[in-house]
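Protocol step 4 of 5: obtain the predicted structure for the target chain.
Materials: sequence only (see below). No template structures provided, no constraints applied. The aim of this step is simply to have a reference model before the mutagenesis design in step 5. Sequence pasted as it appears in the construct record:
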Amino acid sequence: MSAIKISTGTFGDSTLLENSLSQNSLLYPMISKVVIQQYPQYALTYMTDGLSRYAKEKVIGSSSFEWWIKGRLSRPMTATGTTSGTGASKAPFTAEFVENFANSNDILKFKDGQQAIIIAEPIASAGGFTYTMVLQDGVAASTLTGTNVAAGARAGVIGNAHPEASDKGYGNLAFPSKYRNYLSTARQAGEISGDAATSVVWVELNGQRVWYFQAEADIREKFLYEKEVGYWYNKINVDTSGNPLVYQAGKPVITGDGLLAQIDGANMGTYSSGLTEKQITNFLADLRYTNGAADASYTVFTGTAGMREFQQAMKDYYIVSGRALSYDAAFGKEVPLGSDFMTYHAMGIRMTLVHAPVFDDPNLHHDLAPDGLPKESYKMAFINTSTLPEGVSNLEVITKGEGAINRAFVHKYVSGMVDPFEPKSIRAATSKDSFKCEYLSQSGIILRNPKSCGVLEYV
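Step 4 output (structure tokens):
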């Protein structure tokens, strides 16, 4: 792809509605994506909107949407402590579990390694579900270890065994929960005076040229930046029944969970200044263990302090391993190699660092580390950006719209005494010597499996 070229100019005969950025952002979304790419403060916006990671879920009602959080296909069961029988001499015994994640003929493995085969379908009981089973080993003198079925003990299905000419198989896929989130409506506006309307900026890429008003740049940048901040930090403000908790002039003001709220409670870790390669590897191991995926790809969003900590951790690791030096035959000596570490591989997992300037913003974050940088600047958000087996990305954005209506990026002009596209018009919407520029987006963010993501924070 050719490099994007940006130049200034004057509004005139060549600055038409047909070749304006606002018009072509709707007709050719790739143009606005290229513009977004030029501004690194929109790192998350580019990873979603810019890479066309749009979810296909339908919006329920006016602003809510939901999806299944899919993790491992089986889940452990928790014993209540209610049992009968010891399992001696291969006699059946029963144990009650809170959950109903196993079926007849499944093999349960208890915490000390003892195993049992379920010989009947579970029966609903006071504390959950009661299972009848026999110990699996071939030793008649074996008895059930009491601590395996004590209250709070866990057991999991490790397979199943059926007799010859068995009647049927069973299905017990377990999905943890369904996540409901809400779209948030973000807006930004500004006025462009008659004097300012004469200055424009041209953007050229691959032979195509579009333009926008120079005075409009700050308005658009602020709009996109606040949208980026919302993708990270927004929180749901409706109750458990979906009723809005905030009203303005009698109308509901609804926000949905951003990425950090969706990850909260999943994989959370801490570190202090002096991050090490071992800490990074251990955190990746935690993510792999929770996620169950051996080949996940992570985009790690972090601030300036986090990038510095990662660089130093990798350099320390390579120096200790002896791989930071190279032999220069021409001079007969070893010379140090400078390296810019942005990607790291461990246990089949790939992580790539991306700078997220929103974590550095001193206007947002006021809790400072000893070096004077915001503690938030040290935050490392490990976002699984892999494509899931279902063919969809784990990270996606969802917008309101159907058919030709797309509310991901709405851009309009409201003319006053100045109308750049119809300067001879005798009609005006306002009496001001200016025209207004309005931006709007109704969108939300989806982490299909937030349990596969995590956050390392500074303490």
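Step 4 remarks: Confidence is low (pLDDT under 50) at residues 324-328, 334-338. The CA atoms of residues 388 and 401 lie 25 Å apart.
Proceed to step 5.
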